[in-house]
Write a structure and sequence with these properties.
GO terms for molecular function: DNA binding. Pfam families: Ter (PF05472). InterPro entries: DNA_replication_term_site-bd, Tus_dom1, Tus_sf. This is DNA replication terminus site-binding protein. Strands 6, 7, 8, 10, 12 and 13 form a six-stranded mixed β-sheet that branches. This protein has two domains: 198 residues, Replication Terminator Protein (Tus), Chain A, domain 1 (3-Layer(bba) Sandwich); 43 residues, no CATH class. The radius of gyration is 23 Å and the shape is globular. It is α+β, with helices and mostly antiparallel strands. Helices cover 36% and strands 26% of the residues. Helix 1 runs antiparallel to helix 2, helix 1 packs antiparallel against helix 3 and helix 6 packs antiparallel against helix 7. The chain is built from seven helices and 13 strands.
Length: 307
Amino acid sequence: MKYDAKISLTDCFNQLESALNTLCGMLGQHPARTAEVFQLPEILKGEENNTVNTISVIPVSGEDAVSLALSHYQRLFIFDNDQTISSKSAIRLPGVLLMTLSPSDRKDLQQRLDNVNRLKKQLSAIVTETSGVDKTQRFEFVHNQIKGLITLNAYRQIQSVTSPSSVRFGWANKHIIQKIDRGTLLSQLEEQYQNPRAIQSLTREERQVYLAKEISALKQVPEDAILKIKRPVKVQPIARVWYSEAQKQVQYACASPLIVFCDENDEKPVTGVLPDYDAENIKIRHRPKAKKLIPVIPRLHLYMEII
């Protein structure tokens, strides 16, 4: 199975690279295209986990923005980056690539874009599912076949929308929240306790002591308690797409330029700008009422829900 997966991985990636090159070539050569993108500061090696309180944005428009957008879609390898830039953090280029097209051209480009995104999903599935490779061995599995591949870039879908009224940009501070079964987590911690590994500044013995405390804390939680992992996600740029006729807004994560397809007879959508990010001046339009949580295991961002 693993041998077949290696062949499938290489074949799928070659198809993806070719499909991306063709798509970007067509997007770049089309006469009725323009772009606005927002360059963000590059993250240096060793600074991946630093707290980010401010982000300065550099707006770019016109042909330079088109070139940046197309290069970004095809940025798949570590050696595409400067040697000082971290390969552990996502390189993001929010913005919009606006394409004014005839119905036939739009259909053709949409089909090619759909094929690129299908191959991206297929590549991810080969690595994470069909290969049968353990999560801890995926890096080695991928890089033995495709040296220097940035899997996050390879898996990331290229989003498109059709004939919106406006596209505006902003920042999102979010948390990943997921329920977790008490028994499952307890089994995992007990297994780690039996086979402790040294991590960061802790020896195997020191980590075992910490695991024992975490197991004890978890055992004190009622068996029917609702447990949740609530982990903060780094601030990310978003695009808010508005459709006037439907009176509907759709929000997208915007790590790559959003491709906007417009008919030749349509008015071009209004496009906004991405402001600089400042953690101390965040305006929250709507904060849903959250259920109360109390911490159980801080290291795992584990909380118990208070009913």
